[in-house]
Amino acid sequence: MDFLEELAQRPSERWATALEHMFLFVKDQPELLGREYFPDQVVAAAAIVAASLPGGGQFGERLETVAENDLAPDVRLAAPAPELAGMALDALLFVAGPWRQGWATEADASRARDTATALSRVLSGA
Asked: What is the superkingdom listed in this entry's lineage (predicted)?
């Protein structure tokens, strides 16, 4: 939620650029995982991109629900961002292992695995 709030502080027309910078940072600075960026932030960023793509409606709905419940601002992109899909997928795959393992219950871990799989499918265009 903190990541979504930070993104929302920027003008909406700069959100796609901010997401691109994040994905490039993950690619260029993998050793900073857990210090400068965290798996949940990357998953959230990937979900924002996926929500803008065909087949990503479930992620758009989840972002809308989060906003409607005042948990975080609505940061859905105004237009599809297919140019970010490959970068988002690469970043997601890099953090997916640590993110899926960081859950206290097996039910939560299972939902995390399902989310990562669904995000991967949308981002890869499958």
From this structure: Bacteria
Burial 101-114 (b: 16+ CB within 10 A, else e): eeeeeeeeeeebee
Q: Tokens at residue 16, please?
A: 């796609």
**Distances from the Cα of 2 to the Cαs of 12, 31, 56, 74, 82, in angstroms?**
16, 22, 22, 13, 25
Q: Torsions phi, psi of 77, nearest 5? A: -70, 145
First to last CA, the chain: 28
Question: Is 37 strand, coil or helix?
Answer: strand
What is the rounded distance in angstroms from the CA atom of residue 120 to the CA atom of residue 26?
17
Give 6-20 pLDDT, tens digit per residue: 999 999 999 999 999
Which backbone phi and psi does 9 adopt, to 5 degrees? -70, -15
User: How many structural domains comprise the chain?
Assistant: 1
Q: Point out which residues pair with 37 in neighbouring strands.
A: 33
Domain, as residue range, for 89: 2-124
Quote the pTM value. Answer: 0.93
Report how far apart, in Å, the C-alpha atoms of 69 and of each of 39, 56, 64, 72, 76 are.
Answer: 23, 20, 9, 8, 15
